[in-house]
Amino acid sequence: MEDVAQIQNVQKVYQKGNAPPVFALRRVNMTIPRGQYVAIMGPSGSGKSTLMNILGCLDRPTEGRYLLAGKDVAQMNDTELSKARGEHIGFVFQAFNLIPQLTVEDNVSVPLFYQGVKKAESRRRAIESLQRVGLGDRLGHRPSELSGGQQQRVAIARALVTRPSILMADAPTGNLDSATGTAILKLFDELHDHGLTIIMVTHDDSVAKRCQRVVRLKDGDIDSDEVVLKQTC
Question: What is the pTM of this model?
Answer without folding.
Answer: 0.91
